[in-house]
Design a protein that fits this description.
Number of strands: 9
Largest sheet: 6 strands, mixed
Radius of gyration: 18 Å
Strand order of the largest sheet: 4-9-8-5-6-7
Helix content: 25-40%
Distance between the termini: 49 Å
Strand content: 25-35%
Order of helices and strands: HEHEEEHEHHEEEEH
Structural class: alpha/beta
Number of helices: 6
Length: 202
């Protein structure tokens, strides 16, 4: 079988799997199996890919780098209740949620950037000065990070909104009315205040 992920490695310079006997699958943005050429072409059309590893396979799926939309009221409630339960924080209904989500690293990914995001002093000051925003640092189920400012998504509720998220950061803004903006993959945190203002003025 052709080592499709090794080909992706050469194409994207992202180190994924170097030695593995597991099956490998490529999925398009709709979750359908696709071929390498089609998969690669999408990477220049606003898509990136995330990888999920199981006991028997690696699955890479295309996801939009940036996405906007509107959550249903029950979804907003689900997210608020999950975040409140994980962090012990009371969240007002008029607060905008900012979720920083970090996927679980594995032996093919070394290091990470979670600490850079969590300890960003300028960004932390911005959040502190603006109580209309509720900011959360969440890791995927099974990823326990040694920080009192980072919380594990023990029930996998938040993960549903970041499926195939990348190890080095993803974030999502959810406004009180359910409108959202999500960026998958590494991001520039200092740009988030401008994105918040943009969303609020739409």
């Amino acid at each position: 079988m052709k080592r499709i992920f090794l080909t992706l490695l050469l194409f994207s310079t992202v180190s994924i799997f170097s030695q593995t006997q597991k099956k490998e699958y490529l999925l398009n943005e709709n979750g359908e199996v696709t071929n390498l050429e089609t998969f690669k072409a999408k990477l220049s059309e606003g898509y990136i890919y995330g990888v999920i590893e199981s006991d028997t396979a690696f699955v890479a799926k295309l996801v939009l780098r940036e996405e906007t939309g509107t959550l249903q009221p029950e979804q907003v409630k689900e997210v608020r209740e999950a975040l409140s339960g994980l962090t012990g924080t009371t969240i007002a209904e008029n607060q905008t949620l900012i979720i920083h989500f970090f996927a679980k690293p594995n032996k093919y990914f070394e290091g990470g950037c979670i600490e850079n995001y969590v300890t960003d002093a300028a960004y932390n000051r911005f959040i502190k000065k603006n109580p209309k925003y509720a900011r959360f640092n969440i890791t995927a189920k099974g990823f326990v990070y040694d920080s009192k400012k980072v919380f594990e998504d023990k029930e996998g509720v938040i993960n549903k909104y970041f499926m195939y998220g990348l190890v080095c950061g993803n974030f999502m803004i959810i406004l009180p009315d359910g409108r959202f903006y999500r960026m998958m993959g590494e991001y520039i945190q200092k740009n988030i205040p401008d994105k918040l203002a943009e969303l609020e003025n739409e």
